[in-house]
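Standup notes
- DV: blocked on the single-chain target, sequence here:
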Amino acid sequence: MLEGIEEYLMDRQPDTVLVQGDTNSVLAGAIATSKLDADLGHVEAGLRSFDREMPEETNRVVSDHVSDYLFAPTEQSKEYLLQEGRPEEDIYVTGNTVVDALYRNRELAREKSDILSELDLLDEEYFLMTAHRAENVDNQTRFSDLLAGVSKAAAEHGVSVIYPIHPRAQNRIEEFEIDVPDRIQLTEPQEYLDFLRLEADASLILTDSGGVQEEACVLRVPCVTLRDNTERPETVDVGANLLSGTDTESIQEKSQTMLSRPTEWENPFGDGKAADRILEIVTAKQQQVTR
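- DV (later): unblocked, structure below
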């Protein structure tokens, strides 16, 4: 990725490169750009789980420390960056573009997606689940406990669980010969609008994804995070999310707690105009440079 991205950037000669998130491709883009004569902006800067066993945490930290623009989604993210010694003048609290995408597409998903009828979920309550992180699905005991906990939580409430399964998780189920509980319905990975519709109509979301935690919060759907930590602490702070780990009883307990909570929490991730702010900031700086 480093070689390919560097070659592309040298051919295009951009003034500014934006990378978003915490994936390996973000890290490659950040490192490649940092070696060239272009400014680098990191969207979703300052997210921290403080768990260095997560490869995504290393990707976040390194990307933040080679970036010229740090586009933090929240004041908490800004505070983490300041604690790490990043200059305040490089940090901009913009909200998150996840909110932009949700606000733009949630009605479109309601109009265009037929996923509920395809899965026989019309007028049916259900839980939505995602699990793909290596620390969960690559560990046979954790993965089995996680599936058992989600299934028991669903049985307690008389609902099924829709699990659009990640290829990594599917491979581990086959490798470990795990019997998926009957309550959990495996489906193919979903297109964005279909997945958004599934999120919006779920009674509860159980996930180990950072982005899904954030989307659940914005959509005001209760969330249980199947991890011991989160880089979205704001979701916990406003009451939209609880951490359960993968312990079966903990998943049941936290699911019950979230289902009993009111869902009128505040959205801490912005007003849906993050992309506009980022563009304005980058454009204004480029205009200063060219004067």
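- Follow-up: The chain has a mean pLDDT of 96.
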